[in-house]
Each structure stands twice: as structure tokens, then as C-alpha cells.
Amino acid sequence: MTQRPADLRAATLRSGAQSASGHLPALILSAERLAAMIAPGAHGLRRSGPGEDFWQYRPAAQGDSARSIDWRRSARSDAQFVRDREAQTAQAVGLWISAGQGMGYAGSPDRPTKADRAHLLALALAMVLLRGGEKVGLLGQPARAGRVQADRLAEQIAASVPIPGDDDAPSPDMLRPNQRLVILSDFLTDTAWVDALLARAAGIGVTGVLMQILDPDEEVFPYEGAVLFRSLSGAVRHDSRDAGGLRDAYLARLAERRDWLRRRATQAGWQFGHHSTGHAPAVALSWLYQVLAD
Amino acid sequence: MLMLGPIGFAAPWVLTALIALPVLWVILRALPPAPRQVAFPGVALLRGLLDRVPIARRTPWWLLLLRLAAVAAMILAFAGPSWKPAAPGNQTGPLLVVLDAGWSAAPDWPARVTRAESALSDAAAQGRPAALLLADGRPAPGALPFAPADTLLAGLRAAQPVSWPTGLPDDPSATLAAVPEGQLSTLWISDGLDHPNRAAWLAAVADRGPVTVVPPARALRSLSLHAGDTPSLTLSATDEAAPAILAIGPDPQGVERELARLTPGDAATAAGISTRPTAIDLPPELRNRITRFQVEGEAHAGAVVLADDRVKRRKVGLVGEADRQAEGQQLLSQLHYLRRALTPTTDLVEGGLGDVLNTAPDVIVLADQVDLAEADDLAAWVDEGGLLIRFAGPRMAAFEDLQDEPLIPVALRQGGRDIGGALSWGDPRGIAPFAADGVFAGLTPPEDVAIRAQLMAQPAPDLAEKTLAALSDNTPLVTRARVGQGQVVLFHVTANAEWSNLPISGLFVDMLNRLVQTARVSPAEERADDRDQPFWTPETVLDGFGRASPAEGLAPVAAADLVLGPGPDRPAGIYAAGERRVALNAGGPLVLAQWPGATVEAAGAATGRDLRGLLLALAALMLALDALGSAMIARGGRVAAAMLLAVMILPAPQAQAQAQEPAPDVNPELARAANEVALAYVVTGDDRVDEASLEGLRGLSMVLAQRTSVEPGQPVAIDLDQDDLSVLTFLYWPITDTQPAPSPQAYVRLNHFLRSGGMILFDTRDGDVAGVGGPDMSQALQTLAAPLEVPPLSPVPDDHVLTRSFYLLSDFPGRWQGNPVWLEAPPAGAEAAEGVPFRQLNDGVSPVVIGGNSWAEAWAVDENGYPTFPIGSGWEGEMQREMAFRFGVNLIMYVLTGNYKSDQVHVPALLDRMRTEETLGP
Fold first, then answer.
1. Which chain B residues are closer than 8 Å to A249 by Cβ?
2. pTM for this structure?
């Protein structure tokens, strides 16, 4: 029996994510967080439904199975009672990973590409969340809970293909209430979409995390001499006779971009972090776990 | 020519290009290296940034230096530099270049031509008229024309050494009649040997001006054959070295290679020439295969001795009673034993005495022959040096006029004697030890050789000295007498096992070989005209470098001229007249030349060493380094290292390929054929024919499996040049006219296949057109089958076992019908009465069956079992196909069962007899 390449890739990705997330405790959102989530909800959840906590006893009606009758309560009277639990919903987390050409960059063959790292982080985070009973899905796809969802996510992530251009942005229309977003990108290209996304998210009360993933070469700019820079898709070029002389200007612009992102995130109630592919993925995963657990 | 210290420049003006180097420096310095291309996602952040310093990088100084040095090396190279060039002469008069062009000039011919070329180039530069005298013995008539020197260069470069000695025109003054005004300077590029006319020429040119002689750069060695009763080689050399002499000839596979190495003997030095006699001490089988002797490491015609009849095997004529055909009776024939003993080492001629004499043999063996009709011719032949070996026998013993019989070494007593017979006293006699100085010295008579009958010699005073071998009672066994230049030898016993068991011992072979070796081989030229062969035709000729090539466009040479040795019209090589071949060899005794009154250049210091190639190589190396350096700058050190590695690895795969042994690969198809019965066909290269062969044999295999107990596997395709045939029994060979002939090795395998019981079915596939005068395949068949050991053929007789080995057949149709099918002919005189009139070779199976009925096409079926080719029309055609299948079944049965099936013919008779005995019995 032969396996399709996508299966193989999904399997490797999944095993990598499992090893990265193995040491983390299950992510259980705190009770306050649950209550807070429920509180801003438009429909309210003070009704019976699937859940852990007791809600009410009610007389058994036509259609209730004998198994659902609470016999201890029924024994105190002549009627039969059914024990209802309060409905609970898990938190839904949407993941979005940039598929721009630039994400396929790795400064050195012994480092993973940024896209690889982003996929790994996304899936590891998804596993941690799923283990804690949360619902996870890619942005635009239905969020589901359960162990099977990890496999499904791994397949979806592994099957994702880069788009031809450098720019990739999530559509704000895909935002849904009661969601937390994790946006993984390098944020090196045009960032107008961040404004639009954050504005929409603030409008419907969605918060999340912006995670910038960069290659070490992009953080330190180790080039010298005459260099012709071009983007991965080849659309943008920059010819330099003295690349070493550009380093300071480049680093200044990069820092400026990060400041801007952090400012915007904070304004919208989001979190901003950055991660270098030269570092271990567990660091970034712990950080993501912490900010999501808050 | 510009001289800078020890370096001279032929084209100094090119050096002015060196002035351009500083300009080049500035230009190269100003050109920046190409930028690196880097893929970088953060380009958007760089957009709009400006370089602080516009040009920050230059080509590194070491790269600049490397490039400039490469350019400088190229400029120097094109200026034609040479290290310590020959001092330019400043003569103004005409120049004569004498270039010895015999075989002795061949060893360092390119150096000679180069030397002459440089002299002519110098003369051309100085505007002197020049002439080139090519001393190859073929002078142009009239005076030697003088011309501008550069017009002679083409002729000089086209000149090649010849395979005969250097030869100068006869009359120097006539040849030099057209010398222009001025003092003639002569450059004589000599081969170091003396030649006819050389002294006269030296005097003539010395009279007209200075003579410079260029001696040969290396020692010269030549090889010559000393013919005689025991041919030997002589190695003459101008130095003391003694290289081995290689004996070259075809090995048993027919591949030309070195067969043996002879070591020259001790040197005798006289007048600067050392001569070493070398005995050709080789086994006769090896010696007979030798085609040439060659001095190791020498490439000129003088170092080659072509082997001819003088070295080769003796020709022995066998005269005796005609053989009896039948196999069992061969052992009674005297000639059988002689043939078996002599075939490995000699060429045999059989026939009547007159026929044998006409072939000019070296030895004639008469087996029990008396009262010969051509006795006078025979006596004359012996008188001229022939060796006659006679054997006694019943006929000689019973001959009444034995006393008067000529050509008998000793007088014989009529009747002979029996020893150890039923009616005689005593035991059979053994052979006494041979005399230590006789012909048979060193041979040891085996103990078990016993003579039961012999012809007795009359006692005579010279009997003892005529006796070569005697019995233990001192009665002669072999006697010899000299007649004229020849000799007559008599064995007093028969050549078969009737009178003694000597002929079935190894001693017999040794004794005959010893005797045959004593046969005198007369010099070929003396006998050249005695059999109406006044002319010899060149077969193979050598060029000056000793390379053989077929003779083309050469006229036959008169026998009288051949004695003179090689010359302009008769290059060294092999010449044939009728059956006989004689070699004309270039090598011979050497005589060193003396040069009174001439300037002899020191050997080896003649011309300067040309530095051009060296400098160009240096420039190329530096440019390669430059490429590496540039790559290192543009792509980083790893790319450069990879390129360096690639450059170093490039020759490696070849070395690996050489180191790898060719693994012996066995065709898996053949392995399968060895495991089961499989029919095989020869791949002809014509896809359509090969397809038909495969389908045909597949169809036949199917029919065999259905109808008989033979169940063949899938047919096997055989590539004759590659595959081993030893596991096959039956080979189908369709003939096409485009088929290439197999290699000699393939024929060796095919002959072995035929001898060991295999059969080839040749199918010319032209049954529809053969015999009507159109083109058919018979020519292609003849060409392909010529090297095969095919026995005499005849059409299939009516009673042949092939007609009844499974089905009863009267015709052998294929896709065509009505054409004769040929197989091995029954021997002449055999009677058909016994029903098995065939020779019992190969178990009674003919090794070949030849026909043109295109059987494979009749047998051919496709994968579903349906016939592929149409036959005839309608029902008759299908009947013909059925008959074709029946022929195939019969043929395979015949191949596989051998004479078992022919024995089956007797079964009814045997049963009949058994029945008769039963009825007669109790």
C-alpha cells in the first residue's frame, strides 16, 4: 500500500508537532475566561445543554430515555426527574498561516523555511488546544474539537501550497464572533491588511495573536558588497553596490515595522510576538500558550 | 629572430602587445565584479534605500594580477619563444637539404622532418633558394630544381619513410646542375648508415660549399633472417642494447598477438655494429603460426622480419594407397598414422606422386610403394635436395625386383622376417637406444614398443653408418642414404600397427618430426622459376614504420629482381607465387657512414626547445584559476570549492571504468535454455525476419508439445557474437543479404557447436524466387557459411531418416515447396542396402540442413496461436502448413534422437527375425 505524498508530509508534520508540544500541560482555559467568553455572547448560555455542571432537575417527559432519569432524585417523589446540565461551549481558535512566497525562505539549508516553522507552530498549538478540549480550525474552516481534528488539521496544513505572489492576507470576512485568532506571518510585505483585520476584529470582539516569524538572516542582514536582492517571487528587486552599508537602515526599518505591529495589536487588544527560525520552536509555543491562556 | 638571453623569439613584433598591459590593468580595475544575486524576502523593506558609497568594491588585486599574467603569457606564447634556439646561419647562397628517407630514418622521422622544416623556414626568412632531396631511391628525372624555401614545406610534410634502404641518385653532378649562383650550403639529415652513392654525393656537395650533417638521434637496430636448415635471426644494432625479439602471429582464436619473446644471443661487435644471432627456438606448432618477428620497441621496417615458407612449416607430400572410407578400416591405413603424426606440425599434400611433386614439397613420404611410374622425376627431386621417407610393407616385401628398386638407402632382402610370430622363434624385438649424435639423439624408445616384422637389409660395409635406428639385435630399423643434395630414409616397418606398435607410440611422432626438420628448404629465389612462376605478386607490403597493409596497385616482381632485396618497385612485404610465399625483408647488416670534411652536429642539441605550448598551457591554467577566483567572489567559497572538486574529479570516472573488471554476464535466456529444451534462432538484425523466426519457433514448439514428448520452452534469440552456443541443440538461421558476418570468435564457437552435435537449419527464405534467375540468397549464404566446417552436401535422399523420424514425409515444404533440401552427403561408395548409409559422425546427425522454403514463416503463429503468414490458398495451403509442421517435428526428432531413429528402421526386421526364431525354436 503506497501512501500519498500529502499523507507522508502530514505524518511528519504531525510527529514533529507532537514532539514539540509533548512537554506542555494541556491547555485548559481558566473558568473566568470561560465566563467572560460566555458573558459577551449575544444569546447567553443559561440553559440546559451538554456540559459538566449541574443546571436543574426537570420532570421527565415523553422521549427521555430510562437511562437519563436521575433515580436518586426520583425516589424522593412519585414523579421521575431528569438531571439537566448547564450548556458549555469550548473556545474556538482560528489559525492563519501566510502562504506568501517569502515564507518559503530559509537563509541556510540547515534551517527550516519560515513556512515550515509556521506550520509546525500552528499544528503544535492546535494539538495543545485540542488536548485541552478547545475547538480549533484553520481560519475560514469550521473549528472542531477532538483528537481527529488534529489529524485533519495536519493534513490541511501540509496540503497548503504557496501562492504565486509575495503578499498574502487573511480576509476579514472570515472572522466570526467567539473566536480567538492566531496569525502567523513574516509581516515583511505590505501590511495594510493588518489594519483592516484588526479593525474588523475589534468590531466583533475577536482577539488574537500576531506572530512574526523571521529567518536569522532577515534579522541581522549579513550581506556585504555588490548584491542584487530580489524577492522570492522575483517581483521586487533592489540593486545595491554596498549591501553592508544598508544594514543599519534595514534593521531600523525592521524595528519600526515591529513597533508599529505591536502598537496596533495592543490597541486592538491583541498580542504581538516574534520568533526566529534560528531558535527552538518550543520557546515560541510556550509564549503562544501563555498569551492564549491569559 | 630576437634573442633575449637564452630565449629566442620567432615573431618579436608580437611582443609590442605587452605595451597594452597597463591599459588593460586600468580597464579591469574599473570594471566592478558582477553583483551576487540573493533571494531575500525582506526586499520590500529595502525599497528606496540608497547606497551610501556608490562604488565600494573593486576587483581584488590578486585576481587582476592573475588575469594580466595570463594575457602576458599568451602574448609571449604567440611571439614564438624557444629555449636556446639553433644558431641562425647567415649564409646567403642556396640551401640543399638532403633527407635520408629509407626505413632506417623511420624511428625518429618526425624529428627529422622538424629539423628540415626549421632549416627551410630559416632559408625562407632569409630569402634563400632551397631544394629538398628526398633520398628514397625514387629520384625525379633531371636536375634538382631550386625554389623559394617555403614552397618546399608542403612536400616535406607529406614525405614518408619507405620500407627499403635510403637511395641517392646515381649522378650527383647531373642532379646538381641547376644550383643557383652563390655558395651552396648543404644540410644532410642522415640515418647514420652508409649507402651506395653516398660518398660520391658527399664529395660533390662538399666541393660546392659547407656541409652540415645531422646524425640520427637514437641507435638503430635491424633484424634479418638467416635462412637455412635451421633458420635463425640476426639482430644488428649501432649500440650495445639487446631488446627482446617478439614473435607475433594469430593465437588459436585468430587474434593477432605476441606469441613468444626471443632473447638475442651474445654480441659480436665489429666497426661499431654489434650483431647478435638469435635462434628461433620454438615449438613447431607455435612457430608455424608466426607471421612476423619484430624487435621490441622499434617501429621501422628494418626491425621487422616477415615469416615466409623458410620459417614456416614444411610441406609434406603423402603418397600411399587411397584411404578406405569406412570408419573402422581407417586404422588399417598406413596414411592414417602418418597423417595424424604430421598434421600438427606440417602442411600435408596427398595424392598421386605426380600431383605431389607438382606442389614442390619439402618432404615426400611413400608408404609401402614400389615400382613407381614417376621414379625418374622423384629421383631428380631428391637429387635437388628433397627428403624422401619411405615405409616398408607387405607390398615391398613381396616385390620381386626389390634389388633393382631405386631410391632405397640400403639393399634389402626380399621377404622380410617375422619375429615372435606363431611360426618363428624368439620374441618381438624392442628398439635399441639411439646414437647420441644421430638425428634421433635425445629420444628415448619406450619399453613397450615391439617390432614383430621388418624388412632385412643385405649386410654391407656401410650399413652401420647408414643406420639411424636399430632393433635390440642391431638389425636396422631406420636407414638413410644421401642422394645428391637430398636424402632418402627408409623405415623398415610399416606405418601402421601391422608390423609393429611403433606407429601408435609417441616416439613415432617425434621421429617423424626430427626427420622432417632435417629437410632442406631451398632458397625461394632459386626455385622461383622452376614451376612456371617467373613472377611474384606482392600480397602484403610494409611501410617505412613496419606497418603491414595489403598490397594495392603494385606490379608483380620478376623472380630475378626479388633476389636484390627491397627497392622502389618492390617494397618489403610478402610476395606470393602460386602456393608459395616469400618475404622480402628490409633489415640487414648495418654499415656506419663516415663524414670526412663535413660538420657533424652534436646529436640531440640540434634545435631549441619550443616554449609556446608551455606558455599557452600556463595561460590556460591561470585563466582557469581566474574562473575559480571569480566564482569564489561571486558565489562564495563553497561554489568555488565545488568547481575545484569537479575539475579534480573529472578524470576519475574513466579511471574507475578501467579499474572495473568486465563482469562475465550470462544471458538469462541461455541459462533457461540450458535448463530445458529450447529452440534457438540467429538474430539477423532485420526486425521483420527476427520476428518471423521467433513466431515460427514458437509455433513449432507448440506443435511439438502437443504431439510429441518434446516440450520446448520459449525460443531463444542468439546473438552469435555474444552468446555461448554450447547449451543449444538446434539453431535456426534465416539468411538475409544485409546480415553482417559474425566475428572469428563466433565462428570458432559455431564450429564447436557443429562438431559437438548441434544442428543449424539454414533457411534462405527464397523458395519463391530461387532458380528463376532473380536475386536469391545463395551468395549471402555462401559468404556467411564459408568459415564453417560444413561437410559435403547432397539433396535429402529418399531413404533418409529425416523422412521417417516421426512422420513419413516425401517433401519438406515450408511457406514455399518443391525446392530441394540439402544435408550432409552420404560418403561415396557407401551402399544403401543396410538402410543406414551414413557416416557415424555426430551420432549420424547431419550438422547442417539447408533449404529455401521459409519454414519459420510457415510455422509462425501469433500470441493467440493463429497463423501469421498466409500459405498458398484455401485448404491446400493449410495442408501445406500441416506438412511444414510435420517437417519441423521430424527435424527436431532427428536432432534430438540421433541415430536412434535410424535404428528404429530395423525394428520390423528384428521383430520378424524374433518371430522366425520363435517358430523355429523348441
1. 49
2. 0.41
